[in-house]
Design goal:
There is one protein chain. It is built from five helices and four strands. It is α+β, with helices and mostly antiparallel strands and 123 residues long. The chain has two domains: 61 residues, Glutaredoxin (3-Layer(aba) Sandwich), CATH 3.40.30; 52 residues, no CATH class. It has a four-stranded mixed β-sheet with strand order 2-1-3-4, with helices on both faces. A hairpin with a 5-residue loop joins strand 3 and strand 4. Helix 1 packs across helix 5. The longest helix is centred in the first third of the chain and has 12 residues. It is globular and about 40 Å long. It starts with a strand and ends with a helix. The model has no long low-confidence stretch (mean pLDDT 94). It holds the Pfam family ArsC. Belongs to the ArsC family. InterPro entries: Arsenate_reductase-like, Thioredoxin-like_sf. This is Arsenate reductase.
Length: 123
């Protein structure tokens, strides 16, 4: 992946705020509306590696789909890791947002202004 990319849901206020901050910082980025352009399991694995997080760390457990799947009851270990990743790929609303992949190979969940500025500085 080349350049900075931000995974957003346009209906999310944190995502809109992140875009405003990236613009103010003069960042060069691409927008991925991940509910329309759904990341596959391989992309989710790659982002998790860049984030240095596990799939349950970026799962929105308050979403209705999480309740329907019973995610709060799922184990959080190596044996269930693939199951979590499949759930995120199948139900992208479960993915925490916004996620920024930076030019330097890192990524972060950009829910705060500080995180967005940090990502913008990594160009």
């Amino acid at each position: 992946m080349r350049g900075m990319e931000i995974w957003i849901n346009p209906a999310c206020s944190k995502c809109r705020s992140a875009l405003t901050l990236l613009d103010a910082e003069g960042a060069d980025y691409t927008v991925r509306r991940y509910l329309e352009d759904v990341p596959d399991e391989g992309e989710i694995r790659a982002v998790l590696e860049r984030l240095d997080l596990e799939p349950w760390d970026i799962t929105r457990t308050q979403e209705p789909a999480a309740g329907e799947l019973g995610l709060k009851e799922w184990a959080r270990d190596a044996d269930t890791r693939d199951r979590w990743i499949t759930a995120l790929a199948t139900h992208p609303r479960l993915i925490q947002r916004p996620i920024i992949t930076a030019d330097d190979g890192t990524a972060l969940v950009a829910r705060t202004d500080e995180a967005v500025r940090d990502a913008a500085s990594r160009r």
